[in-house]
Every structure is written in structure tokens, then in C-alpha cells.
Write a structure and sequence with these properties.
This protein has helices at 15-24, 37-48, 112-121, 154-170, 199-208, 215-233, 268-281, 299-308, 323-341, 352-364, 368-383, 390-408, 417-422; strands at residues 27-28, 57-61, 69-75, 85-89, 128-132, 135-139, 144-145, 247-249, 258-260, 286-288, 295-297. The protein is an alpha+beta fold and 425 residues long. The strands form 3 sheets. It has a 6-stranded mixed beta sheet with strand order 1-5-6-4-3-2, sandwiched between helices. A 3-stranded antiparallel beta sheet has the order 7-9-10, with helices on one face. α8 (299-308) packs across α10. The radius of gyration is 21 Å and the shape is globular.
């Protein structure tokens, strides 16, 4: 639901490993001030690049997400894209929702910085330049921000499927019984240890953070605690991973977090490699941004959550992908997942039964994004200073969850419009 960059979770990791990561990431002991945006942003950028001059700087404010602020800084004497810097500042009190002190990817107590750095080492995130007291500075990703309409364009959704399969394929996660590994700084051997702070731990933390100061709030909190218990213990969703274990999920793949990359012509061997890549993705390539909600999760949740975002912030269920599109997406995703997981870059044939099995998992998870973002919105209602009706949004998303639950327990799927649209072929 946010629109800008990174991660968060908890765990183990040696002190020496933590120190090594900290040394790799430049820290600027300054803050971005939204009430003095130009001056504070300039101070941060010039601290990072002391040879740049104030007169050459230009700032572009991207449309704010509903949690964070994103600025693009351009030095007019340099390349407008390749040398541009993105400044991302956290929203007020978002640490309640996002554990910025720990890392989902590396499990190091350095948070999204370590996550971002490791993702970058795999080519899955832009280069991280520095962190400051309330945000990050990193390289700009040239391209066009995906629109809600773009999501339903076949070349785009196939490219998203390909990229998501790459994420899940090259960032393997430990199964719960496996021991931790101190090789996290080596991008060729790094894995993502699963701790209690996977998707389920995140939801537990969020429900625990719900306000309870009034009788109505306390009753709502207890209700949602009961729903989380149902989801964790009775629904069968927890651990429904298709036998591959948990993956490192982006968990926030709305349109604004997808960048459509510009077309590039390749020559010689590079052209052959490009053909192989586009065989998996279709005719487009995309890049994901905003990794702050990334965490180990069941792969079907990440996919179902992305499908739920096809309706946009307005939750227009008429825009949800029908069954045949979801299967095409899943087929492309599995081709990419297996190719990247095996270290290959050629097309992989996926048995139709595997496509159907994952499609069934995604169908099963279709209600969980509503619960996840519904809780998120209830918390945002109490902490955010952004002009957005979080309370109304929470009710819409939680309504999706309860409609799914009713169908899951044997109710009529046609009682809620979203459930009806989801089942359309």
C-alpha cells in the first residue's frame, strides 16, 4: 500500500557480520524535514556529494505515497537519470508498522539498509548510497511508473510475473528446520533465514499495535486477534508453500511500485541474452521499488496481493484479473522461478498441473491481503498526517477478508462482488 522503497524483520547474525554491513553503508547524521524540504534535502545531497554545487541542483517531488516522501535530485551538469539520486524519507511513526532496525533479507539488526544492499547485489534494487536518520539515498531507476491500467496489459503483467519469479527464485529462504548461515554478505551464497518475523509475525505485531483506548477499539482489537488465530491455526494457509518453503516476498506490489523499463537494443552476445530474458518476460522488462514491507512469506500471498492491487487504491473489483489471466501470469512466474532458481536463463517448460496447483494456492490466499492491509490502515488512521481516509479504506479491505472467510466456511461466493469477480473465467 505504500509507494516508495525497502524491508524489515528480526533475528540472529553475528556481531562481526552486523559491523561489516554497517561499515559498507555510509551514514549521514542529518534528517530530512518536510517543513523545510528544499534546504534539508540539499544539505543531505551535498553531504553525500561535497563536490556538487547548490546552483546545479534540481529537485522533483514524486507523487507522495500514503506513508513516505520521495524526491529525485538532479545535478544539471550531469546525466539526468544515471547520476540522479532518490531521497526517500519515512512517514511519521511508521516504525510501528515497519521494523526499520532489522532486516528481512539478511536478518541483521541494520534493517532495510542491509536488505536493500543485498537486493542490490543481486541486481534487484538500485545502488544504495547512504542512510540518514529518517531515510535513505539511492540511485534513480529510469523508466515509467506503472499505472493501474498498465497492470492489465499482457506484456506488462508477463514482465511482472517474470520479475517476481526472479525475486522468489534467486533469494532462497531457509526452511524452518534449517540452521542459520553467516554467509549473508556473499551474494552468491546468501539466504534468508526464517524467524518468527515472517508474514505471520508481521500481522501479529500489527494486530498487537492496534489502538484499544476506547471500548469499541478494544472490542475490534479482540475481534481481529481472533481472526488472526483463525487464519494461523484453522485456515490451512500458514505453511501452504507448494513444497518450496517460504520465499522473500515484496508484499507491496501495487502499480506504483513497478517501474516499466525503457526498451534497449542489444548487440551480439548481449542481444542473445536479452532474447532469452524476454522469452520469459514477454516484450517488456520491469523493476520493483519500495521494499519496506518485504518479508519471508508463502509465495501465493505475494501473488494474490499483487492481483488485489489491480483494482487500485479505489478497490475497483471490475479490474481484477480473471482466471485465465491469473493462470497465464502464474505460468510465466513459474517459468521464471525455476529458471532463476536453477541459475539458467532459458525458457523452462512448466507442467500444467503445477500451474493449477499454484493457482489453487493463490485462490486460497485471495482474502488475506484484505486482512493484512485492513489492519495496516487501522493503524495508519491513528498515526498518519497524510490526507487519506484510512478508516474507510480499512473497512473496504477487511470486508474483502470477511467475504472470503464466509465463502471459505461454505457461504455463497456471490454474496460479495469481489468474490464473484474473482471467480470469473
Amino acid at each position: 500500500m505504500a509507494t516508495v522503497h525497502c524491508s524489515g524483520a528480526s533475528g540472529y547474525g553475528s556481531t562481526s557480520t552486523q559491523q561489516a554491513v554497517q561499515q559498507k553503508i555510509k551514514y549521514i547524521p542529518l534528517s530530512y524535514n518536510p517543513h523545510n524540504s528544499q534546504s534539508s534535502a540539499t544539505h543531505l545531497v551535498l553531504t553525500l556529494f561535497p563536490d556538487w554545487e547548490v546552483k546545479d541542483l534540481r529537485f522533483v517531488r514524486f507523487t507522495d505515497g500514503i506513508t513516505n516522501t520521495l524526491l529525485k535530485c538532479v545535478n544539471t551538469t550531469k546525466d539526468q537519470d544515471e547520476d540522479a539520486v532518490l531521497l526517500r524519507a519515512y512517514g511519521r511513526d511508521t516504525s510501528i508498522l515497519i521494523d526499520r532496525e532489522r532486516s528481512s533479507v539478511t536478518n541483521i539488526s541494520l534493517g532495510e539498509c542491509a536488505s536493500h544492499a543485498l537486493l542490490s547485489s543481486y541486481g534487484l534494487a538500485p545502488a544504495l548510497l547512504a542512510r540518514f536518520s529518517n531515510g535513505l539515498l539511492y540511485r534513480f531507476v529510469a523508466g515509467n511508473v506503472c499505472t493501474v491500467k498498465d497492470l492489465s496489459e499482457r506484456p506488462i503483467y508477463l514482465a511482472i510475473a517474470n520479475r517476481l519469479g526472479e525475486w522468489h527464485g534467486v533469494l532462497p529462504v531457509y526452511r524452518a528446520h534449517q540452521p542459520p548461515d553467516d554467509s549473508i554478505l556473499d551474494p552468491h551464497t546468501a539466504t534468508i533465514p526464517i524467524t518468527e518475523n515472517n508474514l505471520w509475525g508481521v500481522m501479529q505485531k500489527w494486530v498487537g499495535a492496534l489502538p484499544s483506548g476506547t471500548p469499541a477499539q478494544a472490542a475490534r482489537k479482540q475481534e481481529l486477534l481472533g481472526e488472526l488465530r483463525f487464519l494461523s491455526e484453522e485456515s490451512g494457509l500458514k505453511g501452504m508453500d507448494g513444497g518450496v518453503g517460504l520465499v522473500f516476498g515484496h508484499c507491496d506490489l501495487l502499480n506504483g511500485n513497478v517501474i516499466i523499463l525503457p526498451e534497449e537494443k542489444k548487440e551480439g552476445d548481449d542481444e542473445l541474452e536479452e532474447i532469452k530474458t524476454r522469452t520469459l518476460a514477454g516484450s517488456k522488462s520491469v523493476h520493483f521499488i519500495d521494499y519496506e514491507y518485504g518479508t519471508p512469506c508463502e509465495r501465493a500471498f505475494d501473488i494474490a496481493n499483487h492481483f488485489s492491487e489491480w483494482g487500485g487504491l479505489e478497490c475497483d473489483y471490475n479490474l481484477l484479473p480473471p482466471c485465465f489471466v491469473r493462470r497465464e501470469f502464474i505460468r510465466a512466474y513459474l517459468q521464471s522461478f525455476h529458471a532463476n532458481n536453477r541459475g539458467e536463463r532459458s525458457s523452462v517448460k512448466v507442467p500444467e498441473e503445477e500451474v493449477e496447483a499454484l493457482a489453487a494456492e493463490v485462490d486460497a490466499f485471495r482474502g488475506l491481503p484484505g486482512f493484512y492491509w485492513g489492519i495496516w490502515a487501522l493503524i495508519q488512521e491513528t498515526i498518519s498526517q497524510i490526507d487519506f481516509d484510512y478508516a474507510a479504506y480499512a473497512e473496504i479491505r477487511l470486508g474483502e477478508y470477511f467475504a472470503w472467510k464466509d465463502a471459505f466456511l461454505g457461504g455463497k461466493k456471490g454474496d460479495h462482488f469481489r468474490e464473484t469477480k474473482w471467480m470469473e473465467e
